[in-house]
# Entry
Amino acid sequence: MLSKKLEKALNDQIRIEAESSQVYLSMASWAEVKGLEGIAGFMYGHSDEERMHMLKLVKYVNERGGHAHVSDLKAPKTEFGSFQNMFEELYQHELFVSKSINELVHVTLQEQDYATHNFLQWYVAEQLEEEALARTVLDKINLIGNDKGGLYLFDRDIQQLTVESAASDTAGE
Ligand code: OFO
# Structure
């Protein structure tokens, strides 16, 4: 059985994962409207992943005798200025989520809930991979600069870039 404190912390994380899904959905829509099909596809995929992270938490909370709450979500921005800026915001958002996962893990130790501690290790690993992916994308964007041909190729190739491929890039460094 989850303690009340941990149940609340997990519910807060459920909201953060749902909001992350909305943030990336809004980025996908912005990119699609700008004609950046590849970037839009990448963001739609990322949005789906965040929904999966949210669902995994919902099921866990309910399985452990808690009650997962579906709550109001903060509306994401609808304008991102430039695709470079949008990916910088994605990176900053992932750093924010990593911090929140770390705090959640800390609560499991305070509450001596080692099953939840174990369950959350998947999220700890996932955040490392997502941060690596975001950094890989930012490095590529820096290489492109303002080159239109570079943007064309970046938009074409980004859909191949997944969390797994970024993780193996990093491992090979
Ligand atoms: Fe839920 O992994 Fe990104 O934020």
